[in-house]
Amino acid sequence: MLDSTAEEPWIDVRRVARPHVAVVIPARDEAESLGDVLRQLEPHGLGQVIVADNGSSDDTAGVARTHRADVATEPRPGYGAACRAGIAALASRVEIVVFLDADLADDPGRLPELVDPIDAGGADLVIGVRPRELREAGAMTPPQVIGNRLATDLIRVLWGHRYTDLGPFRAIRRDALEGLRMTDRRFGWTVEMQIRALQEGLRVVEVPVPYRPRPRGRSKISGTVRGVLRAAASILYTIGRLWWAGPRRPRRNAEGRPPGGWGPKGGD
Ligand SMILES: Nc1nc2c(ncn2[C@@H]2O[C@H](COP(=O)(O)OP(=O)(O)OP(=O)(O)O)[C@@H](O)[C@H]2O)c(=O)[nH]1
Ligand SMILES: [Mg+2]
Q: Per residue in 121-150, pLDDT tens?
């Protein structure tokens, strides 16, 4: 459900730098940090900013409207459910979709680095990966680092492609995203996108981005035992489900090459 209550539209599409780019921000009780995220996105001149308000009990939606973002409401909890609600609210002019968390752990200023390879025609999916040298102390917990390593190792063994991270900050061509037919509603969302991209032969690039501990707000996943276990279960289930469903070897992309592997590599 899209609720665009701002008196003026978010943008005049003739005057912004990137009318074809939208950012989808899944947000559950992120009123404390969302304002800064939206402020830091402003200089990029985006065609649409969508806050996918995932059953928040704080003023997340109010903060979004104050900054003239569109609000997509998804009452059912789940990271993937929120992302899907955001996608359903995309304007027709949008050709590139960026996903960005609402907690300011990623730097919204890096958005052009994710979008430019797609604009240049060299990539369909760009993952913002968080190498150790770009992570502030405590930005990722040990279970998160180990879990990411396990998931990317499994993908390498099962699908033959070496990802270095499952970072949530990412950009994808809209038509490629629609072709992935994403189904996960929880924390399998990021890994599902990366595996489906291999199965569909998308051109995947990794771009290193900095990562910091969320400056404000309450940790819901990585900072709690319950959150970590649920995220791990979701990710492993998704890998198993996609392996079972196949195809197990990446398709060749348009240039006849296997997808991925062209971006700078980070690593743990
Ligand atoms: N936990 C959780 N987060 C959601 C949900 N829907 C949307 N989100 C958003 O997903 C993003 C990632 O959640 P975080 O709580 O930052 O997860 P994390 O980065 O692993 O861990 P912390 O930053 O330590 O909390 C945030 O922007 C959340 O607001 C949901 O149902 N559950
Ligand atoms: Mg976070």
A: 999 999 999 999 999 999 999 989 999 999
What CATH number does the domain located at 2-245 have? 3.90.550.10
27 lines ligand 1 (CB under 6 A): yes
Work out which ligand 1 atom sits closest to the CA atom of 27: 29
The CA radius of gyration of the chain, in Å to the nearest whole number, is 17
Pocket test for ligand 1, best of 101, 106, 144, 212 (most atoms within 8 A of CB): 101
Question: What's the pTM value of the predicted model, to 2 decimals?
Answer: 0.89
Those residues whose C-beta lies under 8 Å from the C-beta of residue 201, and which sit 6 or more positions away, are 250, 251, 252, 253, 254, 258, 259
Beta-carbon contacts of residue 53 (< 8 Å; ≥ 6 apart)? 27, 28, 60, 61, 64, 71, 72, 73, 74, 82
CB of 219 shorter than 6 A to ligand 1: yes
Lowest mean pLDDT among 102-111, 172-181, 207-216, 252-261: 252-261
Res 228: pLDDT: 84
Each domain of the chain, given as residue ranges in start order, spans 2-245
d(Cα 265, Cα 131) in Å, to the nearest integer?
Answer: 8
CA torsion 75→92→97→178, rounded to 10°?
80
Span of 103-107, 143-147, 204-208, 246-250 with lowest mean pLDDT? 246-250
DSSP 8-state secondary structure symbol assigned to residue 135: B
Strand 125-129 relative to strand 170-173, pairing: antiparallel
